Amino acid sequence: AQTVTQSQPEMSVQEAETVTLSCTYDTSESDYYLFWYKQPPSRQMILVIRQEAYKQQNATENRFSVNFQKAAKSFSLKISDSQLGDAAMYFCASKSAQGGSEKLVFGKGTKLTVNP
Amino acid sequence: DSGVTQTPKHLITATGQRVTLRCSPRSGDLSVYWYQQSLDQGLQFLIQYYNGEERAKGNILERFSAQQFPDLHSELNLSSLELGDSALYFCASSVGLRGSSGNTIYFGEGSWLTVV
Lengths: 116, 116
Fold this sequence. Notes:
heterodimer
């Protein structure tokens, strides 16, 4: 079974600064995907970034990047030049890439506050 | 806009009642997932359908059931409702096939259920 752990219930960052959200996961599968989702106060789940486990290169989406350490089963999210609109709950999730169940397994989330 | 449509957006009902939540997946997506998000819990996977057939079942109560129709829309039926069933219910969809574009899961805006 896959598990995802986010050890930081809350984080805060000053506007324009950089913040890193931590995530560790456990899976026995060799082929899987990792995701970060953002949930603003509207409660909508918005995909931030995804990483294929077979790719060594860290994924990047504009101000968002990940540090994927496969051996350590670590998948942290770095937000650069933080903006007020980045304030939200951030969920780390893993997903098997094999056939059969393809459900997402989520961590408990990290609440990010951005201070002006 | 993720392309996943959920109705109703908000629903208030009494204990013991039955409700149906509806979901239309993104165009072309064959997999539909249902998740429950309570205030004190993270996102809990309920059930997945792929092209009309149940593919995976998570922590779904026996009072709950779901189905996916030939046009690929899905319904989640919640019966004998209890106060503890109050939550945000998400529908999500994905292509459901292996491949770089086939494994991202996109979420709808959710259906807020309040049981009084």
